[in-house]
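just leaving the lab so this will be short. below you get a single protein, a line of residues and a line of whole numbers that encode the local backbone shape. id like you to explain what the token line says about the fold, in plain words if possible. thanks a lot i owe you, the record is right below:

…
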Amino acid sequence: MTATPGFLGLPDRLADGRAPRAVIFGAGHGTAYPGTEGHGHALAPAAIRAASQDDASLRGHWDFDLGGPLFDGGPESCIDIGDLPTVPHDNAGNRARIEAATRDILATPAVPILLGGTCSATIPFLAGFTGHGPVWVLQIDAHIDWRDEVKGERYGYSSPMRRASEMGHVAGLVQVGLRSVGSARAGEVAAALRYGSRFVTAREVQAGGAEAALRHIPEGARVVVTLDCDGLDPGIMPAVAAPTPGGLTYTQAIDLIAGLGRRARIAGFDLVELYPPADRDGLSALTAARLVVNVIGAVVRQG
């Protein structure tokens, strides 16, 4: 791992030797398409950590999103082990590093929290749960990400849910926040529906709240959440490559996270597709950091 400032000032290990409940790590590079560089997305883990630092001294304060302090009155139980040494265009190597890191964290056991670049990182992150299934996948995204390949590459940012559907340990997919015209063609929508993926549009969440999505998750299931930043409305999350009006609000996103923590068990979480060069006054990075805080709080409260 490379040395990086800890998210929210969290250490890279617990001083008393306790096993952490959650482990944060970053991976700026995943699988790039031919002719693309991805350097802007690789800035995301550092931007999210930087945005969290103003609250580093407030970890023990009351958090109204969570209904109590971050660690619910107990000892701090989350660490940040820094960034993986990912390399631009080392596609296979980057996937191997992300998958291995995920496996190592699950062996402790703790909940892995990945701060990624593009959502190509989601594929090896989910692959790391092999042997730790069954898991459901809850995707928050404007797009279904069901392309089989793009420019001959099957592991890029347009394909994570297609690849997830092929993993034996993935029990089902719930895809939330869908809207507008994405990369999906009619054949890809049909393939997702044949698999049994549950589509929940952003409009359905606007009308029915988090329950519109949560009702598709079996009670008590272990769930990996993958949050593509373009799943949120660009008014609060402008720093994305494909801004699309009408996405989830911050409150809807944290209601979904908290509701999932009560209904099921959050087994893993990744936040991907933040594009810091397009940010406005740091708003997107701050929103992303707060989403991670809510995930930590939900994991702690799972008991």
